[in-house]
Amino acid sequence: MFHKFFEFAGEKNKRDIQSEEEFLKYCSGKSFLNGLYRIHNTEDIPKWNGIVGKAFPEFSGKIRTFGYDWKGNQFALDTDRNVVLLFEPGSGEVSDLNEDFVAFHNEIMPGNREECLDESFFEEWYEANDRNQLLHDKCIEEEIFDNKEDPVFPLDYIPIAYDSCGNIILLNARKGEAYGNIFFANHELYDEKGFYVITQIACSFNEFIQKLSPFDRQEN
Predict the structure, then answer these.
(1) Cα distance between residue 41 and residue 37, in whole Å
(2) 196 with 182: CB under 8 angstroms?
(3) In angstroms, what CA-CA distances link 103 with 49, 72, 78, 79, 131?
(4) In this structure, what is the dihedral angle of CA atoms 129, 130, 133, 137, given to the nearest 10 degrees?
(5) pLDDT computed for residue 183 by the predictor
(6) Average confidence score pLDDT of the chain
(7) Which of 34, 214, 215 is nearest to 130 (CA)?
(8) Number of folded domains in the chain?
(9) CATH code, domain carrying 72
(10) Is residue 137's pLDDT more than 50?
(11) Is the model's pLDDT at 181 over the cut of 70?
């Protein structure tokens, strides 16, 4: 039933998985395509149902999470309509993918990998990080859910690093002219909305990496 997904993911699976439950059990805790897409551990699904429900209250108790991407975007099944939803904590947006669990894995994801997973941007990030695969329980957006509670930067920015003083390096995740640009968030200064003052420091993740240089404490 999921042969197309496993072919897309490069997974050599010879089992004929016939249900959503069997798929989740078989793929529990697995990462695919160097960490581009992951399946939640089955025992962690109730925890993530709660986390996503808290961040998106209108969906609390109405979803069943099952997977997430490298940025921390969550995929869940709308339990009332049996369609897959995409939750983007970076922008606060929810997308209705209008397909069930099987069609999402076999058709939507392989055919729309850029829209679903932002694959080209992942490849840029992956190469800049010496092709080190993200661990299953790590993503570049770990603090987004906490930021929704008491936001200190706009929800369409993703924290990717800190400096030695606790200032945050942010990536702009909202589609548009500034998409993928890198910003510096000064944690000691606030704007009129109560956010940290942010300043653009690079036009891409690669440019940001290339600008980095060793810090010599003796010279500073």
Answers:
(1) 13
(2) no
(3) 22, 22, 14, 16, 30
(4) -30
(5) 94
(6) 83
(7) 34
(8) 2
(9) 3.40.1580
(10) yes
(11) yes
